[in-house]
Amino acid sequence: MSRAKTMNQSDRPVIALTGATGFVGQSVLEEAVRAGYHVRALTRREQPANPLLDPHVTWVRGELRDTASLSLLTRGAEAVVHVAGVVNAPDAAGFEAGNVTGTLNLIETAVIKGIARFIHVSSLSAREPQLSAYGASKARAEKLVMASPLEWTIVRPPAIYGPRDKEMFELFRSARWGVVPVPKQGRASMIHVEDLARLLVALVPGGEPVTGRIFEPDDGRTEGWSHEEMARAIGFAVGKRVRVLGLSPRALMMAAKGDNFLRGANAKMTQDRAAYFSHPDWVVGAAGRVPPAIWEPRIATTDGLRATAEWYRAQGWLKE
After folding, report:
1. Helix ranges, 148-268 (H)
2. Whole-structure pTM over 0.90, yes or no?
3. CB of 20 within 8 A of CB of 42?
4. CB proximity list for 44: less than 8 A, separation 6 or greater
5. Domains and CATH numbers, the chain
6. What does the pLDDT look like over 227-274, one tens digit per residue?
7. Which alpha helices (H) appear in 35-132, and where do they start and end?
8. 120 DSSP β-pair partners
């Protein structure tokens, strides 16, 4: 179950982390270890050795529907950081099981174990639950967290990018071909995954400024990015002057049907995603700003995009 040296666990406070093997979760895991925590991390499969992290990580085999593994995960923890979630599912039931029932199971386990602190990673899509099954499931999960007796903080990230990301990589790859398809209208906020990870770890101690709050962090760009601006920034990051292909809501739906035909269950652009991508305002709200004394973004998006493109090239994801 674990390769970690448990003798090192006693001198570090313990965080229980879900989603630790995913894009965001891996960055949170690394940041938590750097910040002096021992991490008990949920995983479905055996993890490869990592000499830098292993002394301070205990991997727990299991999943959110398995309450026995959640009991092991939270043992000795002073806080839960819930990153895991379903971002792509064939139907509403898939989102419900992963994002709602899984969150409820974790909340109930934390309550039983007497763990007060609970940091929940949601999504800006929860602001508009009527647009998509994904957004509706994240909104319902938020309600469960807020109704609990836990000392909770909810974080709604905007579009997240950075090394390891397979979702936005599609846009980087398109940019290498000289064309970037984006919604025709609207604006969205951005955040680098490492900045998000720093925030989540910074929230662990809790306290009056952050407990019982919903935060919407971003890169510090007040009005966010127009989709055209973002497409051109990605093109610049990969060294291309790109043509921006603005897609109407109808065109996005047609693209989703085409992606489903070509890639089936592996499709990136689903009809559910097309519905919320078409919404014109995914800019973070001023009311959700994180107090500067707690956290501020460090990575300018133009710099972060260039570094991400370099990572993709180094990994062989982007072909020259």
Report:
1. 169-176, 193-202, 227-237, 249-263
2. yes
3. yes
4. 21, 61, 62, 63
5. 6-156 (3.40.50.720)
6. 999 999 999 999 999 999 998 988 887 877 776 666 666 666 677 887
7. 67-73, 92-95, 102-113
8. 82, 154
